[in-house]
């Protein structure tokens, strides 16, 4: 099927739907027209409500993710401070005489090797 034939069929379908809609509006009274408008509005309202609910779920998920990131940052900070304290304590503690002797022996072996 050629492109212009598909285009012509599309236009024909649109015109047919518009003609049926116009004919239905002439046949129906005001109550039926109001009911038809309500029926057409209901899906749009459902989409709006669903969209608002999805936005609320997205907002809650984003807030939970921010809380998790903040908690991980606090935990990393706590681990860093703990390791720093242990390192500083290890540096501040005096070495035993036996350990000093072993270190000097290793250093002299390293220099002679």
Give an account of the 3D structure:
With 113 residues, this protein is mostly helical. Helix content is 92%, strand content 0%. The protein is built from three helices and no strands. It is elongated, with a radius of gyration of 39 Å.
Give the helix/strand layout.
Layout: H1 3-27, H2 30-92, H3 97-112
Q: How would you sum up this structure in a few lines?
A:
By secondary structure, this protein is mostly helical.
* Helix and strand pattern: HHH
Low-confidence stretches: none
**Average pLDDT over all residues:** 81
Proportion of β residues? under 5%
Helical stretch count? 3
Q: Report the principal-axis shape.
A: elongated
Fraction of residues in H or I helices:
over 70%
Structural class: mainly alpha
End-to-end separation in angstroms reads 88 Å
CA radius of gyration: 39 Å
Question: How would a textbook summarize the main sheet?
Answer: none
The total of beta strands comes to 0
